[in-house]
User: What shape does this take?
Amino acid sequence: MSGSSIAGISRGTLTEPVVQVSLDLMSTETALATAAVALEAGADWLEVGTPLVLAEGLHGVRALRREHPDVPLIVDLKTMDGGYMEAEMMADAGADAVIVMGRAHDATIERVCEAGRELGIVVMGDNLGAEDMVAEAARLEAFGVDIVVHHVGYDHRRKHPGLSPMTELSAIVAATTIPVQAVGGLSIEQAVGCPSLGAPIVVFGAPLAIDGDSFTVADGDLARVLGEACARVHASPIAYPVTADR
Assistant: This one.
């Protein structure tokens, strides 16, 4: 189990922006190397991205936990069924948080939230694919997730260029009272602007840290670029809605 619990996170406790680096890679070796660079650059949380979960499974989670015992570890399972079992497996491997899809059956979301409470891990609810993204975010909070992931997916963005989670981000923050993160092809400038919109958990993955087409480490000076981006996020003030229950 993790020694870096972020259980109990809320807007009230989340008073400074957090940088989460998504390890959307396909080997544990590359993920470990990239994680080391990310943490040196100032990242706060590491995400075991879906490609890494598919390629390495529990072995990848355990390896990252062994290497970084005190770093919050988010596992992007994109759970659709078997909610309690999947959450429990990842918690046992060292995960601090797991992700359940809003498109899953109500019973699955309920079971993942139950696992979160019983196992002391954070549950993140992902609104990818919802017809009404704002309503889905509020629905996920009502089920008891701890964090809303406002997510415009990779395939969706490729088919419809110009789509961005930034479009509805303010409305989703206003419709919820729990922490929100925006995911889906954000530029550095957009990511740095998220805390000012009330979404202080900032995710860097493709295209900054990961090549979104090949799922390999992106070209360029990753340490320098990510370090500058992390510093900018950490210096950004959080602007929660004044009416939100923090």
